[in-house]
Amino acid sequence: MQKQLSSQIPPRLDANEHAATALHFIARFGWLRAIELGRFVYPNDTHGRKYAEKLLRKLVQLRYVLPRKLPGVGAGSAYVVAARGAAWLNANAVGSNERNAHAEEDDYYRDGTNWGRSDKNGVWSPPLSWEHDLLATGVLSLFWQQGAVDVVSERELLRMVPNASKHADGLAVTKDQHGRLQTVWLEVERSRKSGENLNAMLKAIVAAQRGTPVTDYPGLPPVRHGMIAVPEMCQDERGYSLNHQQRILNRLTKIGVKSDTNINFVLMQLKHVTVEGIRFATIVA
After folding, report:
1. What tens digit of pLDDT does each residue of 54-73 get?
2. pLDDT at residue number 10
3. What are phi and psi of 214, to 5 degrees?
4. What pTM does this model have?
5. What is the pLDDT of residue 24?
6. Do 223 and 173 contact (CB within 8 A), yes or no?
């Protein structure tokens, strides 16, 4: 008896569909989870994460992305762009301002499956910076939901200015009260940075707040503000409450920042490693 041919249509990706937008966001950030991806593709949709999971299933089926299980409670899986996905993006250049700016590069998008490392037993682990990077992405995804014109990941900033001595953890392009575009410099501080690293971060924030950023990024509106994202509630390794805001203000005094400087804080509401919400506070140093 003749075998009946399957009527199922092989999956494909079109440039105008949400899955293509999802692939582009993953490439921009290097890796994304479903919850942050949902905020980018379906901002302010209560079902955004569920929809993003459906998009990711299609991209995995196409072998355009690859899942990586993150360690720890509630971390979930990260998705990175595979070689097939990078090739598709380079061929289609979906919604890609940065790709257009590098039109001479045939391989602007690249295979991201080498993110992290495997030990001799084949057990994979993410880079040590993954939690910090995830917090920055979480804050940027919430900025996006709240109406930011654009957000820029640290990965993109590194490609813009490879030799900079200091990069932001991310940038958000917003509009000021007159409707003019401006850029906000974001730094994330969760654990207690060492003295020199903390000093460099605070100097960058103050410079951004004064409109004189330590690094200029071509093609973006002028940097007018700096913001420090800190956990709304946090404890140290001994279980004592950490007041990140006060500690930062104390350090600003030590490094000689003049009084009457506004320091903008993004207070992160965390559940494990997920930034579930943010609120803003401005304190005069």
Report:
1. 999 999 999 999 999 999 99
2. 60
3. -70, -20
4. 0.89
5. 97
6. no
CA distance 117 to 126: 7
CA-CA distance, 166 to 272, in Å (whole number)? 28
- In angstroms, the CA 32 to CA 253 distance is 37
What is the CA 249 to chain-centroid distance, rounded?
26
Whose CA is closest to 30, among 85, 93, 95? 85
Q: Measuring CA to CA, which residue among 283, 191, 184 is closest to residue 230?
A: 191
